[in-house]
Amino acid sequence: MAKLPVILFMSQLPTAGLVITVCFSTLGAQRNWPDYGWGRSTDEDLAITPCDESGLLWSLPTQHTPDTSRMLPIKATPGQFGPEIRNPGLWVWRVEKMKAVPLPKSELGAFFNGDSYLVLSNRGDEGADLHMWIGEQSTHDEQGACALLATQLDSFLGGYPVQHRQTQGYESPEFMNLFPKGVSYKVGGVETAFRKTQSSEDPVQRLYQVKGKKNIRAKEVKMSWESFNKGDCFILDQGKSIVSWVGSQANVFEKQKVREIATLIRDTERNGKASIVHVNEGEEPPEMIKILGPMPALKESTPEEDTQADVSNTASLYKVSDATGSMKLTKVSEKSPFEKDLLVRDDCFILDNGANGKIFVWKGSGANENEKREALKIADKFIEQMNYPRMKTQVEILPQGRETVIFKQFFKTWK
C-alpha cells in the first residue's frame, strides 16, 4: 500500500485534551484522534485474520493501541514511586485518575468496588509480585490508568516483578494470603487521598493442591484444612521447609507428581537450600499443625473429580512476535507438557490455561520493549478472542527468570 502524505494540526481543548486532526491529502479524509498518553492513538479495531498453515491467529500493527475513547486525557504522573519500595515489604496504592495514592497500614485489605489498586509484595531476594486489583464497578478510565501505572512501576523496578491482574471476587490465594486479617469489599470509592504507607515483611507460606490423573497440575489454594481432602496431594511451602502431604485415597500419579513439584520448588525457588518432608495422611509434622491447627475430619474424593481436573488442567502455548512489523500470535504447541526450548528469549509467549481460569504471559529477556509493554493488552485481546470471561480470567505476566512453579509445571523439564 502506498504511503499517503499526512498533515497534522494540533490544538488544545479544555475538555478533550490534545486533539490531532489528520488530513490525508490524496483522499481528503479527516479524523480526530485524542492523545491519551498511550502513544499513537487510533480508532481502528484490532485486525482479526483466519488461521492459516502457520497457525497465525491474529495480528495488529506494532504501535496499535486499544480504543481509548473513554480514557482520561492525561498522562501518568512521573516520579510517583520512591526508592523505599525497593525494600522488602507490602505496598498498596489506590488509583486516583492517573496518580497512585499510597494507603496507610490501617487501610490494607479494604477495597472499594468502584476503584482499582496496585499491590506490591516485595520479598527482596525471593522476588516480587505486582498485583493490579480491579473492582467490579471500577470504570474503564481507572482500569486503564491502573495498567499504565503498573507499567510505570514495573519499569521503576527494572522489570523485576511478576505481574498479576486480580478481579474482585476472583482473587488468587496468593493475593489473599497477603492480607492475614482478610480482604473486605466496600461499596463506592474513597474520596480521601492518603499520603503515607508502611511496609511489612512476612515469611513465605503457600499451600498447593496436586490433582488429576492424566493432566496432573498443582494450583495454589487457601491456607486451611478446608482445602484438603483424602483423594489429593498437597504441598505446604514455608520457604525453608516444604511439606509434601499425600492423602490416603490419592492416586499413584498424584503421589509421583507431588514429589516432583516439591523438588521443583526447592531447586528453582529456594536454590536447593530448603528441606523437604514427605508425609502421608495421619503423619502430619508439628510444623504443619502449628500453621493449620488440629486436623479435622477430611472430605472424601471421587474419581469424577480427577477426570474434571484433567479437563481444566490442559494448556496450549502461543508465540507473540512483531519481527515483521506487526504483532502476531502463533500457536506453537497444542497441548502440554511443553518442551522448555519452545520459549525463545527474543519473543513473548502466552500459555493458555483458560479452562482453569488463567492466562500466563512470558516475557523473554531479549524481547523488544514494545512486546513487553503490550503484554497485558495482548492477553486481554486473547481472552476476548477465546471467549473467556474477562472478569473471571486471571492474568499473570512473568519476566524470564521469574517463572512461578505453577507456570513451570506445564513443561516436561525445567532446569
Automatic annotation (TrEMBL):
Gene Ontology biological-process entries: actin filament severing; actin polymerization or depolymerization; barbed-end actin filament capping; cell projection assembly; central nervous system development
GO cellular component: actin cytoskeleton; lamellipodium; melanosome; nucleus; ruffle
Pfam families (alphabetical): Gelsolin
MF GO annotations: actin filament binding; phosphatidylinositol-4,5-bisphosphate binding
Localisation: Cell projection, Lamellipodium; Cell projection, Ruffle; Cytoplasm; Melanosome
Keywords carried by this UniProt record: Acetylation, Actin capping, Actin-binding, Cell projection, Cytoplasm, Nucleus, Phosphoprotein, Repeat
Ranges where the Gelsolin-like domain occurs: 99-176, 215-289, 334-405
Gene3D superfamilies registered for this protein in UniProt: Severin
UniProt family annotation: Belongs to the villin/gelsolin family.
Quaternary data: Interacts with NUP62. Interacts with NUTF2 and RAN; involved in CAPG nuclear import.
Protein name (record): Macrophage-capping protein
Gene: CAPG
